[in-house]
Amino acid sequence: MMFPQTLGMFIPALIMLLITNKKEHVNYFIDKKTYLNMIPGCFQAVGNLFLIISILVNTNAVASPLSEFSIVVATLLGMFYLKEKKPKPFNTITLIGLTLIFTGALLCGFSDFILKIK
User: Fold this and answer.
1) What DSSP line would sit under the chain, residue for residue?
2) Percent of the chain with pLDDT over 90
């Protein structure tokens, strides 16, 4: 189930890596940053695997909103823990967007519960 998605991400990345190696005369295959950037990619792969398992165990109406919360958490960690600096209007727009994502995910998550009440 995840194998086609994995190939769809791996093959274009490999092609781009080969193209940039020739253009910039840098061998990214032996660069330390390449291997360090694989660590977050592995975490994302594990998260995607658990999302697919959650969709199989729960329903899509429960699993998908839970995955949206990861966007909210990652953005807030970047803003406040890593102290990423952006101009003030961008921070305001980002926080409004995160509020909308959070509200939408909550409504989707509770929709099954709300529909059973009626």
Assistant:
1) --HHHHHHHHHHHHHHHHHHHHHHT--TTS-HHHHHTHHHHHHHHHHHHHHHHHHHHS-HHHHHHHHHHHHHHHHHIIIIIS-----HHHHHHHHHHHHHHHHHHHHHHHHHHHHHH-
2) 8
